[in-house]
């Protein structure tokens, strides 16, 4: 591929992302009015990725999986939806307490540390290519076949003994194939998982943001994504576990934010922002969140949260902090109590 072809493919990818991002912002403003900050950005990322997956599937299922058709379809979908939803709906704001500078600094430091650890195997993937078993077994072959055959409907017979591989979900491979489609190679594929990891940290912050516990959630998730099981096998490769983790966290975050928005809205107000898809997948979590009385007293303020922030008179109980506390305690046990900082953040006071 010449430099001109590579530049053209990069510009086309940027146009696809910009068009679908425009549509995602419009959809978020219409479906989740009043949302702001990390919670709104997370919802927009999920909506934009959903639009991209559906667009690629519709173009590919009719045998038109080529750069020109994908670009045209993305522009039509993105600009059409974004223009139709330029005027966002109105709704009460999603309140969130201010976070102290110390808490923000700790969360940023944890995120930078994890990113640095993930960057090293990612660089290896860029230098010598992706080589781990699942990638060469089905992740990368599925993505390549989409581009080679210009369609996404056929089965790919990558395994003669384990026939279930033929029917694996392939949303991750579809996104990998988009980079291959426009650039002519899999240069972007080793970079995707570090991007999914970053989005996981965003989802963790958004999950606990309505209760001022965003830094705690980021620190807890940093322990998880920096564990050897993920660090050794995800960055720099085409495995899809990190992508699945992100969408699980995003579904939980949307659910918790929607519930907090509903509780803090005016009496009788519309519970805008409730995700029926996320509620269906996380019904047990929904039952736990909704099973707490709205009139319950506000729990003690986390020492990393600025206590000077104005709060509603009847703030809801904090399932996000309970979940983050459980996650940090589990991670602390796994660390064999060798890290005093982990013990501090996993203490029952959180």
Q: What's the topology here?
A:
Elements: H1 3-31, H2 37-61, H3 67-84, H4 101-128, H5 133-149, H6 171-183, H7 189-208, H8 214-225, H9 228-231, H10 241-264, H11 276-281, H12 283-290, H13 319-334, H14 340-345
Helix pairs in contact: 1-2, 1-3, 1-6, 2-3, 2-6, 2-7, 2-10, 4-7, 4-8, 5-6, 7-8, 7-10, 8-13, 10-12
Helical coverage, percent range: 55-70%
* Biggest sheet details: none
The total count of strands amounts to: 0
The end-to-end span amounts to: 54 Å
Strand content: under 5%
Structural class: mainly alpha
pLDDT averaged over residues: 79
Uncertain residue ranges: 266-315, 334-350
| Run of helices and strands | HHHHHHHHHHHHHH
Coarse shape: globular
What would you note in describing this structure?
Helix content is 65%, strand content 0%. The chain has helices at 3-31, 37-61, 67-84, 101-128, 133-149, 171-183, 189-208, 214-225, 228-231, 241-264, 276-281, 283-290, 319-334, 340-345. It is globular, with a radius of gyration of 21 Å. It is mainly α and 350 residues long. The protein contains 14 helices and no strands. It has a domain at 93-130 and 186-345. α2 (37-61) packs across α6, α5 (133-149) packs across α6 and α7 runs antiparallel to α8.
What's this, in brief?
This protein has 14 helices and no strands.
Keywords:
350 residues, mainly alpha, 14 helices, 0% strand, disordered C terminus
């Amino acid at each position: 591929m010449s430099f001109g072809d590579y530049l053209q493919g990069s510009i086309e990818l940027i146009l696809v992302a910009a068009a679908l991002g425009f549509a995602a912002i419009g959809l978020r403003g219409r479906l989740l009015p009043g949302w702001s900050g990390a919670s709104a950005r997370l919802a927009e990322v999920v909506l934009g990725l959903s639009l991209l997956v559906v667009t690629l599937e519709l173009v590919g299922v009719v045998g038109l999986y080529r750069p020109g058709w994908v670009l045209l379809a993305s522009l039509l979908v993105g600009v059409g939806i974004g223009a139709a939803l330029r005027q966002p709906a109105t709704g009460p704001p999603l309140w969130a307490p201010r976070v102290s500078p110390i808490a923000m600094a700790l969360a940023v430091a944890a995120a930078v540390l994890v990113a640095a650890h993930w960057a090293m195997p990612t660089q290896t993937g860029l230098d010598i290519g992706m080589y781990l078993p699942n990638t060469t077994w089905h992740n990368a072959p599925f993505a390549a076949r989409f581009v080679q055959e210009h369609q996404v409907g056929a089965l790919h017979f990558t395994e003669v003994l384990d026939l279930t591989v033929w029917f694996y979900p392939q949303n991750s491979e579809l996104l990998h194939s988009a980079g291959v489609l426009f650039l002519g190679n899999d240069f972007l594929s080793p970079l995707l998982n570090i991007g999914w990891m970053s989005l996981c940290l965003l989802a963790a912050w958004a999950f606990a943001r309505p209760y001022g516990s965003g830094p705690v959630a980021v620190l807890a998730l940093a322990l998880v994504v920096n564990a050897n099981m993920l660090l050794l096998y995800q960055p720099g490769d085409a495995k899809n576990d990190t992508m699945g983790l992100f969408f699980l966290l995003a579904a939980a975050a949307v659910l918790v934010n929607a519930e907090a928005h509903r509780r803090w809205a005016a009496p009788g107000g519309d519970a805008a922002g409730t995700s029926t898809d996320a509620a269906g997948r996380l019904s047990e979590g929904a039952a736990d969140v909704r099973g707490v009385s709205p009139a319950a007293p506000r729990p003690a303020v986390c020492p990393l949260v600025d206590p000077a922030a104005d709060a509603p008179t009847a703030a809801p109980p904090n399932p996000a902090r309970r979940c983050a506390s459980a996650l940090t305690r589990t991670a602390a046990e796994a660390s064999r109590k060798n890290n005093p900082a982990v013990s501090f953040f996993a203490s029952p006071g959180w």
